[in-house]
């Protein structure tokens, strides 16, 4: 079994001061750096996803004439209306400055189609188009993923569920995740949904002993 580490959306806009800041989101960066060293000493490749929206993305409340943090429907799919975030080439879309990006082997960008959101690093929310992530992992003969990042209840959750349905074994590293929590229990429910779908629930702390 060959593993890879998948770091989900460790970007400025999901961290302190960002447009869609996740509570304590910055705390995931040290965990990511530690896990990357753990992986490098075991020849485990590291992949990062990057939320990468055009300025006109329709998931942005302003572009769809909705109030941020409410929900509705976008092209037939349920949609939370988000503040403008992770706009391509803007500082908010960059990886957190403390993330040791030199240790990344591959970056997959998602959310580039203005008409559909893409929480998962594998597919858009309608499973209409795939990213290049599955091809990259298949070429590297990866069958197991350690997954962590932001946000537990959106991009981590949808990435893990898609990984499982694509046949990967998944270990979720909960100490490397933080959630948006529009409802207080969203992250706990997301972890439970991932566990029920077949993910192993672990921590970076336990791996690093
Ligand atoms: C995310 C909301 C909108 C995430 C991305 O990375 O979890 N959440 N876009
Ligand atoms: Zn987004």
From TrEMBL:
Q: Where is the Isochorismatase-like domain?
A: 3-205
Do you know which InterPro entries this protein is assigned to? Answer: Isochorismatase-like_dom, Isochorismatase-like_sf, Isochorismatase_Nicotinamidase
Query: Which CDD domains does the annotation name?
Result: nicotinamidase (cd01011)
Residues annotated as signal peptide: none
| This protein's record includes keyword Hydrolase | yes
Give the EC class as a word. hydrolase
Among its keywords, does the record have Amino-acid biosynthesis?
Answer: no
Gene Ontology BP annotations: pyridine nucleotide biosynthetic process
Q: Which UniProt keywords apply?
A: Hydrolase, Metal-binding, Pyridine nucleotide biosynthesis
Highest taxon, organism lineage: Bacteria
What is its pathway?
Cofactor biosynthesis; nicotinate biosynthesis; nicotinate from nicotinamide: step 1/1
A Pfam family found in this protein is Isochorismatase
Query: What is this enzyme's EC?
Result: 3.5.1.19
Q: Name one GO molecular function term.
A: nicotinamidase activity
The family annotation for this protein states: Belongs to the isochorismatase family.
Q: What is this protein called?
A: Nicotinamidase
Q: What's the source species for this entry?
A: Rahnella contaminans
């Amino acid at each position: 079994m060959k593993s890879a580490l998948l770091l989900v959306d460790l970007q400025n806009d999901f961290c302190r001061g960002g447009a869609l800041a996740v509570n304590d989101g910055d705390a995931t960066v040290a965990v990511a750096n530690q896990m990357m060293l753990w992986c490098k000493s075991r020849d485990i490749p590291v992949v990062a996803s990057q939320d990468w929206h055009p300025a006109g993305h329709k998931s942005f409340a302003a572009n769809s004439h909705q109030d941020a943090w409410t929900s509705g429907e976008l092209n037939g799919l349920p949609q939370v209306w988000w503040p403008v975030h992770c706009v391509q080439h803007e500082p908010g879309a960059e990886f957190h400055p403390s993330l040791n990006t030199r240790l990344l082997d591959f970056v997959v960008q998602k959310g580039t189609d203005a008409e559909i959101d893409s929480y998962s690093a594998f597919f858009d929310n309608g499973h209409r188009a795939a990213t290049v992530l599955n091809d990259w992992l298949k070429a590297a003969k990866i069958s197991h993923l350690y997954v962590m990042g932001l946000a537990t209840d959106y991009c981590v959750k949808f990435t893990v569920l898609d990984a499982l349905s694509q046949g990967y074994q998944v270990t979720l590293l909960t100490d490397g995740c933080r959630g948006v929590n529009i409802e207080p229990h969203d992250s706990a429910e997301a972890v439970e949904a991932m566990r029920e779908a077949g993910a192993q629930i672990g921590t970076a702390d336990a791996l690093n002993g």
